[in-house]
Amino acid sequence: MTGAVAAFDHQGEVTNEQRVQSALRAFVREFGVTSALHMESCVHCGMYAEACHFYVVTGDAKYTPAHKLEPFRRAYQREVGPFAAVARTLGLVAPVTISELQQWQELVYDSCTMCGRCTLVCPMGIDIAELIKEARHGLFKAGLIPERLALMDRTADKWGSPATPAEDLPDILHDVAQQYGVTIPCNLDRADILMTVAPAELGDHPKSIAATAKILNRIGANWTMHQSGFDASNVGFNDGDARLQEKLTRAIIDTALRIGATIVLLPECGHAYGAARWEAAKWYDKPLPLRILHVTEFLAELLSSGRIRVRPIGDTATYHDPCQIVRRGGLEQAARQVLAALGLQLIELKDHGVNGFCCGGGGGVVSIARATPLRHKVFELKRRQVEDTGAKRFLTSCGQCRITLDMGAKHAHWEQKVESLLELVADNLAD
Amino acid sequence: MELLDFARGPALQFAMAVFAAGAVWRLLGILLLPRTGDRSAARIGAPSRLVGALYVIVRRLWPRRPFLQVTLFATINSYVFHIGLAIVVFGLAPHVLFLRSLWGISWPALPSNVVYGVAILTLASLLAALARRVSHPVLRLLSGPGDYLSWLVTTLPVATGLMATSHLGARYETLLAIHVLSVCALLIWFPFGKLMHSFLFAFSRGAMGARFSHRGVSI
């Protein structure tokens, strides 16, 4: 439902007072030491603006990362901080208003991809992306998130995926198997590897499913996909719905444990990696007895161990580092090992690896239609850097990045194709 | 009671008590919050959380290469007034005497002319920081009363100290009393505003370093 002011949407029919209270409660619910330290340490130096792609391409001060947290900083000071009682009693910190929460929807969702680049420049080392995630918990509970994300949330809650109902999965996999000539096991009772996908692959990139299947079959793995846990993208992680995040995570991990899998294989999806690799264990409050691998690091392991070999391609290439698997995930070298194995001469972007710019669509921003003009500006930044390399091929390891970049390319009538590293490996498997 | 006696006596004692109690309260109020333990498996070969924390505490003393140019003024100016303040506070002979009476240890003071020069440079640097804060759209948007108050209580002791040293504007005892009272204001505000970053920076950087070293990210 769209509100009276075009810049924000709202869900549910509750009073404004209830929305504010829900937002504050959800925001402060799990405030731990690290988040508090990062809330307390900001000196308002403003340096982080220079790291944010949305500020860099617009020069608009409102996109300064710390400003995106302003109402939530006040909520923290009034509800959690060491002087909260004094701040509340003496009215030293103004209470958060419904109008502010409505206005901040654009800053917390449309113009933050939770890419974490601002953390690179912050002299206090504040993990602003993580604080934005907590702010999203507040806005979700308040029923103040972009409607497109709310729709995806409701769909994923019902279907286990925002892309397709679980009962359709066998048919989809059958079609992919037929189209690409691969075998895709589904719903096996026992398997060593549980393969998962992202909505991008169930829609725009079915070849990626076939590519993973081809590689798993090549190494003779005992693997399966499963209706009870198949979409790893985790809408709840992005939109601020902690309950759904746990539900979707448990669907995958519980399935893997039930079938005896020792590996959960994640697709080319950044936020899937953030939600599963670093956050799955928190829902169980114990270390998990299985490995959670992004397909890029899986490929790097297979190549380095000699379990698969690839034909060298010999072109020049450049690579877009997906934020969640590189800057926030630690897989900078894995992708480069795969590129090297493919015999590609890597010409790095001006800002690459941990320093790379986001595609502009992470954190669900790709799905927010009203953010499209902003995304296109960010695209121009990436396009310039790609063109400056002069590389023939442009690769990445995240389906959402590919979709964002493809949308930008289409808008800009840019001819450069954005390729999947996974698909390139599968296409060039050597006997 | 003369103003100077009041400033050196009850005012300073009160300010130091507020400073100590406020800083401890704020630190404990943060550090005693629940710890949301990360149960994920560390990346194989990643340094320990402690090493990661220490690395970031040190590494963040200067900017990463892509941000050197865009943060050049803020970085250099911040270094100038931070080091300048340290030299003035710990290098001026009367300060050394005062700190010896407080802590029981002392060290050789710097020549007063050197400290005087550093204080002028520090004051200029603080004025530049303020000019940037009120003129840069990002900083202006971010800044609230607390930011300006922090600037004021940091700058006043430097300015009044210079005035007292130069015997400018009033008799020395009065200027000295005003200087000590400005230090009292600094101590009283310190625990409540962003000046606490003097303590918090290490914890904040360390927490981030621990989080990302666990993931194998060199950040």
Can you characterise this structure?
- The complex is a heterodimer of chains A (about 425) and B (about 220).
- In chain A, about 50% of the residues lie in helices and about 5% in strands.
- In chain A, strands 2-1-3-4 form a 4-stranded parallel beta sheet. Chain A has a 4-stranded parallel beta sheet with strand order 6-5-7-8, with helices on both faces.
- Chain A has about 425 residues and is of the alpha/beta class.
- The N and C termini of chain A lie far apart (about 55 Å).
- In chain A, helix 10 (about 170-180) packs across helix 12.
- Chain B has 9 helices and no strands.
- Chain B is about 75% helix and about 0% strand.
- The mean pLDDT of chain B is about 95.
- Chain B has a single domain (about 5-20, about 45-215), classed as Fumarate Reductase Cytochrome B subunit (Up-down Bundle).
- At the A-B interface, helix 2, helix 7 and helix 16 of A face helix 1, helix 6 and helix 9 of B.
Short note summarizing the structure:
Chain A is of the alpha/beta class and 431 residues long.
